[in-house]
Amino acid sequence: MKKILVWSLFTRLSHLLMMVFMLAVFLTPEVKQLLSLHVALGYALAVLFGMRIVWGLMDVRYSKFKDFSFKIADLKAYMFSIFGRKKEYIGHNPASSYAILAMIALTLLAVLSGAMAYGVKEGMGVFSFLNQTLFRDMKLFKEVHEFFANALMFVIFAHIAGVLLDKFLHKSSTLMSMVDGLKQSEEKGLALSFFQKIVGIFWIGFSIFTLVYLLLTPRSFLMADGNIKIDYAKEHKVFYKECISCHTLFPPFLLPSSSWVGMMDTLKDHFGDDASLDEDATLSIKEFLVKNSAEFSTKESAFRILESMDKDKTYLAITETPFWKKRHKKIDKKIFEREDIGKPSNCKACHDNIENGLLNNRDIRML
Ligand code: HEC
Ligand code: HEC
């Protein structure tokens, strides 16, 4: 038998990129600040897998969908013979045929649902407009995204398990063929046409371009921030002047109206300080705070803070709310005491742009 080319350079390169991007996209949700990278990787994967469909529809030997084995009888026979003697497939065996189709479909669904969750939850990207109407369902969108991501991870693990089984049980050359593209066969090998080579170059190039472009262009339509900076000095001059003099200017949407009323009625003893103002100023600020309180906001932080509260309790501090406590639990107490931070209520030491009403993940400083 001779060695023939089965997997083109583009198939092997795309496979390598898929592995690297997949690993990264599953690791990035662990760190809040890396959300932009996670989203950019998602879109790059959508390009890789979307182009795999184009590749499968073209007349590329072994890679085209027509050469896949989708017969249920073949799949059954293949699965039952896993631990025994197995028929050798030059192209994709029945199990990997199904796995590839499932990975393409699940990747595209995971990216679409992820983009929607990004819009609904964070007010970011192409679906940022959904935040206004659907913010109450942000958890649902996140769960749907996680469902597709978990299903995808499951298929990937099954696929890897299959390849390893092949390698160690059957001493098959499949694993190596993903590196050098070669397999032993009497069949005629693969040869790409000029047009197919152009598509192959576009496949690899476009996915890498997508990742790099999105990372370098935070304002691109796929990742643009739908949250507009609020200029509180313009919105309400007195609030801005009075409430920024001792600490961070806390955006009104971070507490409900009951908290603001309670606070504005007790400014004489404001956390041990006398922050009292004349009656007009007090009334005017109170009105502004109530009008812009958490109940009237579509922002994730407002929604989550409100949701976390014990309904019978009046919270006078953001740092006392269960959501705030939960989100900052992992931070070492010593960090809050650091010279450049000082205390938990010094939000702006860690959250850039919070005084403009923005609480984006990418604005969280690395501690
Ligand atoms: C005289 C100084 C002073 C002024 C003026 C002042 N505050 Fe405060 N405020 C404090 C102190 C002290 C605390 C306790 C927490 C801290 O040390 O930052 C506090 C805490 C808060 C907190 C709770 C922060 C947390 O821990 O979650 C809120 C909310 C707040 N202030 C809102 C306001 C608003 C609204 C105004 C404007 C009407 C205002 N403050 C004006 C001194 C002041
Ligand atoms: C010592 C730095 C630090 C300080 C001070 C701090 N935060 Fe944070 N905050 C963080 C970090 C880090 C995270 C991300 C935690 C995680 O990984 O879930 C975070 C998360 C959050 C979130 C959740 C964001 C999201 O998308 O889920 C909100 C809301 C928030 N902070 C508000 C505040 C407010 C309001 C203050 C001031 C009262 C404050 N933080 C003070 C570091 C800080």
In short:
The protein has 367 residues and is mostly helical. The protein is built from 15 helices and two strands. It has helices spanning 9-27, 35-57, 72-80, 94-122, 130-134, 138-170, 174-180, 194-216, 232-235, 237-243, 257-264, 279-291, 300-308, 322-327, 333-336; strands spanning 2-5, 182-185.
Describe this structure in words.
The protein folds into two domains: 2-216, Up-down Bundle (Fumarate Reductase Cytochrome B subunit); 232-363, no CATH class. Strands 1-2 form a two-stranded antiparallel ribbon. The chain is elongated and about 95 Å long. The chain contains 15 helices and two strands. The mean pLDDT is 94. The protein is mainly alpha-helical. It binds heme C (2 copies). One heme C is lined by residues 32, 254, 300-301, 318-319, 327-328, 331, 335-336, 341, 344-347, 349-351, 359, 361, 364, 367. Residues 242-243, 245-247, 250, 263, 270-271, 273, 275, 285, 317-319, 343, 345 line the site of one heme C.
Question: Secondary-structure map with pairings?
Answer:
Blueprint: E1 2-5, H1 9-27, H2 35-57, H3 72-80, H4 94-122, H5 130-134, H6 138-170, H7 174-180, E2 182-185, H8 194-216, H9 232-235, H10 237-243, H11 257-264, H12 279-291, H13 300-308, H14 322-327, H15 333-336
Antiparallel strand pairs: 1-2
Helix pairs in contact: 1-2, 1-8, 2-4, 2-8, 4-6, 11-12
Bound molecules: heme C (HEC) (2 copies).
Residues 242-243, 245-247, 250, 263, 270-271, 273, 275, 285, 317-319, 343, 345 line the site of one heme C (HEC).
